[in-house]
Amino acid sequence: MTATAVRGRRRPVTAGLTAAAVTWAARRVLGGLDPGRAARWTRINHRGEPISLLEGPAVAAGLLAGAVAGRGGRAAVAGAVATLGGAVLGLVDDLSEDAARSRKGLRGHLGALAHGELTTGGLKVLGIGGTSLVAAAVATPSRGSGSLARTAWLGDVLVSGALVAATANLVNLLDLRPGRALKAGSVLSVAGLAGAGASAAASCLGAAGAAISADLDERDMLGDGGANALGALAGTALVLSCPRPARLGLLAGAIALTVASERVSFTAVIERTPWLRALDMAGRRQGSPASADGEGDRS
After folding, report:
1. Is the dihedral of CA 291, 278, 187, 247 positive or negative?
2. Average pLDDT, the chain
3. DSSP string, 194-256
């Protein structure tokens, strides 16, 4: 095996370990905030107990560090852009006290935009859409200079950008119960391990692994910042690793689930499906409620 091949095999390991270490360290540094500042990051979960959003920026820091450490060139830049876009715009939504947060889902935020009102959720939709397209453009190499090649490249960028944005939104939609978003992001990432997105996928797995214990114990939650960042980097891993037909299929699935979320409670579906319920409850506190009257969120 050549030295280049050995380095290539080590990069995902380096990325995953870096993401885990930085997530762990960042969470402990953030845990040292004075009580007044930490209170801004505290919410009340579905049990009526306080829970911290500080997991979100810690996971985002780990994802960013892993994406950069694991692989240079296009993959690192694309991963960094997608992660930063999801993290920053998600954190703006997390920390806003805008009354417009009562508008839930894409339909609510896009409806507000149609009436000329920009909610923080609407800003997030537009912003993550934009950074996802930039990440996709960086991740997609040009295959020629003719008009046909440019058209094909543009089509690939649009599909890939939509996939990154859709996975960012989908993981965020699942951040309703302990561990659910981290598990979903990890499952998505596994599909990106075999290819150029292996380092980005390993970063997702490393950061999720470092955060899962506190999340399952209901001390921490990802919030929009962490969930959007995790979903965006997982989507970038899929873009880097999967051929066009697979990306189209994944995008169709993500869109279908997003549309379904406007009408169907994911929590209720999980509760009715034995294998999904078993996966959802794995590692959670005894007596932790699995179902709810509506989706809501953990805060």
Report:
1. negative
2. 86
3. SSTTHHHHHHHHHHHHHHHHHHHTTSB--HHHHHHHHHHHHHHHHHHHS-HHHHHHHHHHHHH
Strand partners, 114: none
What is this structure's pTM? Answer: 0.87
Q: How far apart are the first and last CA of the chain?
A: 51
DSSP state of 284: P
Report the C-alpha gap between 296 and 130 in whole angstroms: 27
Identify whether the C-beta of residue 106 lies closer than 8 Å to the C-beta of residue 258: yes
Beta bridge partners of 52: 42, 220
Gap between the Cα atoms of 189 and 256, Å rounded: 19
Q: What angle do CA 59, 97, 35 make, to 5 degrees?
A: 60
Q: According to the per-residue pLDDT averaged within each range, which of 67-71, 113-117, 229-233 is highest? A: 229-233
Q: What would the two tokens of residue 34 be? A: 């004075």
pLDDT at 7 over 80: no
Q: What is the pLDDT of residue 299?
A: 46
Which one is predicted more confidently, 202 or 145?
202
Three-state SS at 286: coil
